[in-house]
């Protein structure tokens, strides 16, 4: 819910005669600060989301303008405002094309506009919006941590969200995120927000509990997934050294249910990190949805041990492969031929093993109910192996 290019245009179009020339797809870019610049030196210190303003004094040639735009795009600037009429009268077409191609908003204000007043105006608005965003984030965190205490968050969020509507949480993380210092993490946050296109006033983005959190309100799941995929694509291209992972929680109704979507997004993010996947949707994780939501890992270990202990002891004593055979047997829904093919073992040998396995377990493994505990045990084992990798 940051102060965006769109927000700026709502007042600047009339107050400062501002015109939008190119980079329309960057309309929702948020602004972290406003800088007046006449050369590209200061751009090296940009964190991301800075709005650049220039009179054009330091950019006499078309090539200079192109270099300026390239540097701004490379350092994740939110846009460029040109003060036309004194040092530049006509914006190069090549510059417009580049800004369109890279979703970098390009705007103009006439020379008569006092840039100091305009920059002060925008800076105050950025500061006020940042303060509001912090209050919103605090209220959303309260909704996650204490969902039953609605007095701690519902009233504070009422003017910004449809608190009775749908909510969905998206988490973004990467290796070492929690170990970063505050400045490094803030820079990464700004860059990621630039990649989350078209999210403005129906979402909130903040850092919490080792992840970047995006809380979306009244947004379709299809749009949220497209948003995440686009952000991952841009992040991979522009931050090759950072491997982002995304977990998407279930959609829920009413702000009081936000904690459910958050916990499920947390589980999905964990799965994404463990499986080395860029994006995992909790609702598409099958039985893992249940297992990853279990807080008591001890009970999971108990279930695995109870189901597989006897076979493991038999394998240890007789140098057999009964555990592996059972796993393949369940995987292939009892097909002896498929198990034999996967394990490169003769069909008769598999038949013999399965017969012994049934005796050891005292279970015929015929019905879904008879097989389910062992299938769950192997799911748990897979989870444990992922944690050790």
Can you put this structure into words, describing what you see?
The protein is an alpha/beta fold. The protein folds into 3 domains: 5-113, HprK N-terminal domain-like (Udp-n-acetylmuramoylalanyl-d-glutamate--2,6- Diaminopimelate Ligase, Chain: A, domain 1); 127-292, Alpha-Beta Plaits, CATH 3.30.70; 297-388, no CATH class. The chain has 14 helices and 11 strands. Strand 7 and strand 8 (211-217) form a beta hairpin. It is elongated and about 90 Å long. The two termini are 38 Å apart. This is PucR family transcriptional regulator ligand-binding domain-containing protein. Belongs to the CdaR family. InterPro entries: CdaR-like_regulators (IPR051448), CdaR_GGDEF (IPR041522), PucR_C-HTH_dom (IPR025736), PucR_C-HTH_sf (IPR042070), PucR_dom (IPR012914).
List the helices and strands and how they pair.
Blueprint (H helix, E strand, L loop, with lengths): L4 H11 L3 E4 L10 E4 L13 E5 L7 H13 L4 E6 L8 H9 L4 E5 L4 H31 L8 H4 L8 E8 L8 H14 L7 E6 L2 E7 L3 H18 L6 E4 L3 E2 L4 H17 L4 E3 L6 H5 L4 H22 L3 H10 L4 H8 L3 H15 L6 H21 L1
Parallel strand pairs: 2-3, 3-4, 4-5, 9-11
Antiparallel strand pairs: 1-5, 6-8, 6-9, 6-10, 7-8
Helix pairs in contact: 2-3, 4-8, 6-7, 10-14, 11-13, 12-13
